[in-house]
Amino acid sequence: MLSLSALKKMVGSPDYSPAGFLLLLLLLQASTWYSAVSGFSVKGPAEPIMVLLGTDATLPCQLSPEQSAAHMHIRWYRTQLSPAVFVYQNGQEQGGEQMLEYRGRTELVRNSINKGGVALLIQHVRASDHGQYRCHFKDGQSSQEAIVELHVIGLGSAPHVHMMGPEVGGIRVLCSADGWFPKPRVQWSDMMGVNLQSLSEVQTQDEDGLFRVEASLVVMDSSLGNLTCSIQNPLSGQEKASAIFLPEPFFPRMDPWKAALAGTVPILMLLLAGISYTGWRQHQAKEREVKKKKTKSHERDQMKKEKEMALEAKENLKAELERRKALYLVDWKKALLYPDWRKEKFQLANVTINQEIHQNNSDPERKENFREETEDLSLSDKRGDCNLITLNQEGFTSGKHYWEVGIEDIDEWTLGVYEKPAVKSGLSTDLQNKIFRVIEKKGCEYRALTCGSQDISLKEHLLLEKYPQKIVIFLDYEDNDISFYDMTQGTHIFSFTQANFSGSLYPYFNLKSMEHSLSEPY
Predict the structure, then answer these.
(1) Is pTM beyond 0.70 here?
(2) DSSP line for 468-493
(3) Residue spans of the chain under pLDDT 50
(4) 11 lies in a domain?
(5) Total structural domains in the chain?
(6) Which of 260, 334, 367, 492 has its CA 20 to 30 A from that of 275?
(7) Residues 382 and 489 grouped into a single domain
(8) What is the pLDDT of residue 444?
(9) 33 located within any domain
(10) Which letter does DSSP use for residue 157 in this model?
(11) d(CA 465, CA 244)
(12) Rounded Cα–Cα distance for residues 115 and 136 (Å)
């Protein structure tokens, strides 16, 4: 039966015309007259029914006025009466006309059938179940039906965002996700929430009808920082998002070969102009060949020599440009292997492990026995009930250094660097005068902290996809930079870039979080 809501949708259509509206009114009047003749009408829900993929859906229909439908022939179908989604006749289900994809997944809910209310239960909803259904009631020669709209919502995987590699002037980033239905929307945004336009977007469907999406973007701005990719379901508005941090060293630098290219283009133009001028002189010399034989011979030799020199200079410039381009590509390949490439410019630090005993244990020999020097640190090597702290006795006051730390199966730890200010007369250099720049793990949470004087001036939560097994720490004293990398995944974790070093820097490790460390005496 044609409903008022369906009529409103048709009137709002861009194809609507006054003649079409009159025809719709006549159809509605005829439908109402036919309902009066048949003695009943069928009503469905005014709004679409929305269910999650894999759950059960209930599609209700109601006779008006209320009357028993137990003796009626009830049929649920999609586009044609047969084969049908479900057939109820003579008080029981009739499976002979049922569509194969609905067998074993449908059931008629008859709790209110004596009052004219029935519902079709579809179990384990699939993507192919999405769309319109018609509930058809037949009583003798009279029949009526209503339309029920079913919207299936599939919330797929969270987007996976990763860098593809260098692009002209920037970095290409790819965002992919699968298992979504219907076709999802993809949106890029920067750390300020400003939306960015995708360079390309491809969506495909698998054998179950679910969508896989791949969208790419070329980032030109090296100061962009975090880049977020969001996947949104158009029906429910629900979305999933993932972010990626884009370190500035990954962006192409203005290498010397580029500057050389900009400077050599005018020179090449001058050389081409010189070659043209040489050709003109050759033409002029030929015209004066008869009158100036001796002069022509001299000029010809001179022009030949100039042409050879120009061609040789041109070939040398081309060779130099190719060599510099090759160096640029090699540099990019090294950058993709960060942090291994960084190790070529940083010096491996000799770090001393000092497992300090609680202050109430005053045995100096025991303290001495718990000190060892190593290049392969592991926090998982516990010895007794003590705090594990690593110290470099000399400290770092300049240069570039790095060290690696194994953290397998440790539930709580803190690692990083602390700064010890220059000693002034009458001042103490205990824990309260030190500045810590560390990352910590406490349970399933990761944080980056800057601590000093028993307070925390920076606290930032970190989102790590996988638990790191080994972390490498890079310290660049001159650039005031401390960076942490996951050696297992080869990914960047966090960087302290706003530091201003003035004292000595020491490696720091502890089998406790900073909250516990600051609250206990040392």
Answers:
(1) no
(2) -SEEEEEEETTTTEEEEEETTTTEEE
(3) 1-16, 30, 33-36, 332-337, 356-376, 380-388, 425-429, 521-522
(4) no
(5) 4
(6) 260
(7) yes
(8) 86
(9) no
(10) P
(11) 11
(12) 16
Can you name the residues that pair with 186 across neighbouring β-strands? Answer: 231
What tens digit of pLDDT does each residue of 329-383 get?
555 444 444 566 777 788 888 876 655 434 444 444 444 434 444 444 555 444 4
- What is the domain extent for residue 397? 347-519
- Of 314, 335, 356, which closes a domain? 335
pLDDT of residue 423: 61
Q: Which residue intervals of 351-431 are DSSP H helices?
A: 364-369
Task: State the Cα–Cα distance between residues 221 and 171, nearest whole angstrom.
Answer: 9
The residue with tokens 């130099």 is 320
Pair 321, 372 in one domain: no
Helix (H, G, I), strand (E, B) or coil at 300: helix
Q: Is 307 helix (H, G, I), strand (E, B) or coil?
A: helix
- Is 514 within the bounds of a domain? yes
Residue carrying the six token digits 């974790």: 493
- Domain stops at, among 119, 147, 175: 147
> Using one digit for the tens of pLDDT, what is the confidence trace for 410-465?
888 999 999 987 665 444 445 557 889 999 998 889 999 998 766 777 888 998 88
Q: Does residue 395 share a domain with residue 481?
A: yes
The confidence score (pLDDT) of residue 361 equals 44
Q: Are residues 266 and 312 in the same domain?
A: yes
Element (H, E) at 281: helix 256-287
Q: Which amino acid is at 55?
A: T
CATH of the domain at 427: 2.60.120.920
Q: Are residues 117 and 244 in the same domain?
A: no
In a domain, 28, yes or no: no
